[in-house]
Amino acid sequence: MSFPEGFLWGGAIAANQVEGAWNIDGKGWSVADIATYKPNTDVRDYKAHVAVSSESVKKAMSDPDDTYYPKRRGIDFYHYYKEDLAMFAELGFKVLRLSIAWTRLFPTGEETEPNPEGVNFYKNIFEEMQHLGIQPVVTLSHYEMPLSLSLKYNGWVNRCVVEHFIRFCRTCFTQYGKYVKYWLSFNEIDSIMRHPFITAGIIPDMCKNIDETASCYQALHHQFVAAGMATRLCHELVPGSQMGCMLTKLMTYPRTCAPEDVAAAQKKNLENMFYSDVMVFGEYPKMILRDLEKRGINIQMKPNDLETIRDGTVDFVAFSYYMSMTESVDPNAERTPGNTVLGVKNPYLDSSEWGWQIDPAGLRISLIELYDRYKKPLFIVENGIGSRDTLSEDGAIHDSYRIEYFQRHFREMEKAIDEGVDLIGYTSWAPIDLISASTNQMSKRYGFIYVDQDDLGRGTLMRIRKDSFYWYQNVIRTNGAELSYPANAG
Fold this sequence. Notes:
Helices cover about 40% and strands about 15% of the residues. The chain contains 16 helices and 16 strands. Helix 8 runs parallel beside helix 10, helix 10 packs across helix 13 (about 305-310) and helix 14 (about 360-375) runs parallel beside helix 15 (about 400-420). The chain is globular and about 60 Å long.
């Protein structure tokens, strides 16, 4: 067993979680800029953290401070990007997955010409990456759509957002196509059902003519159409480029072998892969259409929409994988949180402090399942564990727990490759500590690089290499051949 030659090792970040600089150089409000840190809310209650209303949006916009709006400050990658990229290069990164903040290029989303300072910022990043030998993997929409489009149109529910998004995509392809080969349209496109505002700018109390669930499906359809258009446009404007879809892989097992539990788990898994099914196969699954019909949900489509989706299928399948869960028809079954989901607890697995169950074998199972289903190259673009790291007396972070987590997952990746899975790359979430997506915490740390900042923004922002930094550096250097390399070898 071994990783293939040219395997794309690296890490993944998102603009809204690292950049900061939320209100300078012409950047406009994004949905991330009103994401609130709630210190008195249970960190496992993700719904309470992502809840939004018109009133909460107005309150956030009237507050110029960033103390309880951590994504406004991120880790100041906007000013530290050269230092951070240099550390990624020291790690040996072949690729870095990052996103382009829509509102840095088009502050409200409706401008006809991009903001020059925003264009230059990403140009400078890509040129620096090129100098360091790091290839970009760019996500076009990663939980940072213009807040103006949300307030004016209820986000992606309105068809006009497709046109505005494609204008943004065209700018990205023409300005940065010479630097970028790998593109992703929407981050975790399936998440629209779990946090509609973050994913698609949908504010529940603005869903007037149709309810929130129907609004989500309408917005999702518009995103499918936009993804198809973006894929065709990317292939046209960036010769040799590849466009991928991006799915939250939520592996669900039956809690027992009772047929009812098996059926419940099957339903969860089919629902999870519906999104990538559309973007890979170019059509809505018949069972999904039947389910929508039974629920009385009628998606409004234009005459050429299905053709656009069919003609804009993706070149590879990217996904995040953090945890697995089980499902049961037993109403008394104990449930536990995961990546913005709730599932029945699996007694055979350990859990993180945030309740996410740790299942390395589930990654192998997911890889085999996805490759067997889609027969397209796979790319793991998020995987990691959030933990509370502590600076020791020697000024270091001894995170053996993080090293163990990755060791176990990498071994399962090897097994899947040995089974014949075409896995082209892996980017950890995240190579550097950043603001957590759902709970907006800094203390939920993922990185190989420690950032001196707490949940309220206090700290020096100093970057410190953790023990896992040197371990991952050696994994990349040996192309995964040495997974047990000592953590303190740096």
